[in-house]
Please model this.
Amino acid sequence: MKAKNRERMQNFRSKLSDFQREQYRNHDAAARKRARAASKHQSNASFGSKQSLGKSVKKVKKNLPQDPAKQKLVIQAIAQSIGLLGPSLHKRNTRNLSCKLKDDIVKFYCRDDISYQMPGKRDTIVVRQNGTKSTHQKRILLYNIREAPQLFLSERSGSGTICCHRK
Model:
C-alpha cells in the first residue's frame, strides 16, 4: 500500500510545472511546520513521557497515608506550599466575652462555696499578664463541670450569656 502510494505521488510530482511544484513545496513545508508545532506542545513539560509522570505519581501515592482524610490533608498542604492553592479564606470565629462577664465568672469560681483553696505553699500558679507576673493559689472545684455553670446562670437570674459561649 505504501509503495503504491509512493509511486502515485512521484508520478504526480513529476507532472507538475515549476510554479505548481513551488506551490506544492510551500504547502508541504507549512503542513510539516504545523505538525511539528502540534507534536511539540508537551515538550515544555517536566517529564519526558507520560510513563515517567505516571511512575512518579505512583511513588507518591504509595507513600501517602492509608486514611483518605489524611491523604487529602497531606495533598492540600503540599499544594498550598507549592503555590497551587491560595491561602485559606477560612477565618476562625472567636467568642468575645465582655470584661465584666469575665470578671463575674472569675469571682464566681473563686467563691468559697464553689471552690476551696489548696493549703500548700507550693500550690500556686504564676500567670504573666502584659509583662507582669502574678501568683494565684490553686483552687479545687466542689461541683461538677456541668453543675457549676448552671449555678452561675441560676444566680444571674437567667441572663444566659454564658450558656451560648460555653461549649
